[in-house]
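Sample intake sheet
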Amino acid sequence: MNKVAVLFLSLCASFSNAQHSEFSVKADTNSILIGEAVLLTLSGEIKVGDPYQWPFLPDTIKGLNVLEQGKIDSLIVKERLTLSQKINITSFDSGFVQIPKLVFLNGNDSALSQSLVIKVSLTQAQEDNELFDIKAPLAPPFNWLPWLYLALAIIAAVLLIVWLFKRFRKKGHHSKIDNVPSLAPIDWALEQLAILEEKKLWQDGFQKQYYSQLIDILRYFLEREFSVKAMESTAEELIEKLKKLKLDEENFISLSKTLRLSSMVKFAKQQAQPYEHEESLQAVKNLVLKTQLKKAEKEEEHE
């Protein structure tokens, strides 16, 4: 009797320590209309630490469409692991959709869910209701606010363009040399040419700035020394005005070449050669020096 009791107790202990798993599949309804959703809840329970394989819903079930699969949630209570998952399904075929038994594996153990049958029905038309012809869609009421915003945006854009145009035009009519000192025109021009040469603008790749400042010096000098309206003149207009000053031919030709070259660099983005930069500076400097020489000769004659 003692051996039998010991054997019975050992079997009970091994049974209590064996892996036990539970699994079920439930639906929130078993009858829907075409296109309506059914919420499936998959639930399983195993011992904490036991390996398991969660089942999946086959996508080959006739008439079944899976709308959304939630993640697998877990909860541990008293060394038991509870697993759950929400799945939304539907069907677009009338009839019956059968969800087969799903297998939940737990190590060497397994658990089967019960199979489910979902009835899918067509929407029933109400025969008593009066049928009406299909009407064309109504035109939406006119909304003037978008047109108002568009008009204001256009007006603002036009005003901005006009302002920018006037600002840049004004900048173009004035020299980039901010302060014109009270020096005599010849002394001032020679000083500005020396400063420009020290800046080494064209050597550093700033050809456009170099010619802009060089021609500004020329324009200021012509206006102050010869009273020529040079600031608003184009290169060709300025060349015509230089003709009236009766310069010597060599100086006139070199200044004309400098003015045309500056226009090409500024507007056509032409890259001038190093010797052309030096010749342009020298052309303006020669004009200043020759003007200085003529004035000195006149002063000697008066003496």
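Comment: The chain has seven helices and ten strands. Residues 3-19, 170-175 have pLDDT under 50 and may be disordered.
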